[in-house]
Design brief:
Keywords: Copper, Metal-binding, Oxidoreductase. It comes from Lentzea rhizosphaerae. The chain is about 15% helix and about 40% strand. It is mainly beta and about 325 residues long. It is globular, with a radius of gyration of 23 Å. The N and C termini lie far apart (about 65 Å). Copper (II) ion binds near residues 293, 295, 298 and 308.
């Protein structure tokens, strides 16, 4: 037996043991993450789950390898804050509509049912797709009339944070016909312990984050030291909003779904209608930290905070991380 072969025979069992240990460790990590996800809104999420920000993940069924989603647009009485009920238009009975999250390369189909009292059409904002699936009424397709449905089908090529919305006119969008459209890249997704979205609305529902006005906006949970991803989406339909986070700075890592070559650190980010940004924040101190529009009439009244305000409830780290000096 050559010395080379002897060496291989000694090394292989060692490698096998190492591999088993690594697999066991990976199993422990995965199960602890899953365990936390049920109690603490930490990734990963399943269809129908509350994503911890007042939105829910859209369910779908797989038919012949295609992910099939159903979206029903209909009028809805929607309470934006306690006692403040507005006449909304909604996909599947919620404002915003369900979060559509698919993987890069998926073929997706959307059956859109129009139960509104008026015509509509649905646009897939930021998607590279065939022109006749772009959802622009009168240009790429006929208007979907009340009682009718329209089926869209395309391949998810454009990765990152995007959104979908009615392209009929701004009023439909302002009444709530929009939602987050998230295409998870095969490689290089933004790494984070938590994944929130804040869709900014400023139409007939008033100033709303994810369809709600403070104090009805969902409180957002985080822990010191975690990487917290926030997807900011300007759904408009009319205004721009300087979104400000208390408690230090965040990093802007992507715009309109595209990763920035150099992430930029700031504490206030101007979000225009149609724009999306992915920001990452690592809280350094426990407490209640605001994220809000810094135009005061969008975030406050004479009776206190209202509109575009959400609160991060930051808890101590799950493991003993060093805290910043100075308390
Ligand atoms: Cu604003």
């Amino acid at each position: 037996m050559s010395t080379e072969l002897v060496r291989k025979r000694k090394v292989l069992p060692v490698l096998t043991v190492l591999l088993s240990v690594l697999i066991a460790l990976a199993g422990v990590t995965a199960s602890s993450v899953l365990k936390e996800s049920t109690s603490d809104s930490v990734l990963p999420a399943a269809a129908g789950d509350d994503l911890g920000d007042g939105t829910r993940l859209a369910p779908y069924e797989v038919v012949g390898g295609v992910k099939v989603f159903r979206l029903r647009a209909a009028p809805l009485s929607w309470e934006v804050s306690p006692g403040n009920v507005r006449q909304a238009f909604a996909y599947n009975g919620t404002v915003p509509g369900p979060v559509i999250r698919v993987n890069e390369g998926d073929t997706v189909r959307f059956i859109v049912q129009n139960d509104l009292p008026e015509n509509t059409a649905l646009h897939w904002h930021g998607m590279d797709l065939p022109n006749d699936q772009d959802g622009v009424p009168g240009l790429t397709q006929p208007e979907i009339e009340p009682g009718q449905s329209f089926t869209y089908e395309w391949k998810a090529i454009s990765t990152g944070t995007h959104w979908y919305h009615s392209h009929m006119h701004g009023d439909q969008e302002g009444k709530g016909l929009y939602g987050s459209l998230e295409v998870v890249p095969r490689l290089g997704d933004i790494v984070a312990a938590r994944d929130y979205r804040l869709i900014i609305g400023d139409g007939p529902l008033g100033f709303v984050f994810n369809g709600k006005s403070f104090p009805a906006t969902a409180p957002l949970r985080a822990r010191v030291g975690e990487r917290v991803r926030i997807r900011l989406i300007g759904a408009g339909p009319e205004m721009i909003h300087p979104i400000h986070l208390h408690g230090g700075y965040f990093e802007v890592v992507a715009q309109d779904g595209r990763r920035l070559p150099v992430p930029q650190q700031m504490d206030t980010l101007l979000v225009g209608v149609g724009q999306t940004f992915d920001i990452v924040w690592v809280p350094t101190r426990v407490g209640k930290w605001m994220i809000h529009c810094h135009i005061f009439s969008h975030a406050e009244t004479h009776h206190g905070m209202a509109g575009l305000v959400s609160i991060f409830n930051v808890d101590p780290p799950a493991v003993g991380l060093p805290l910043p000096l100075g308390g």
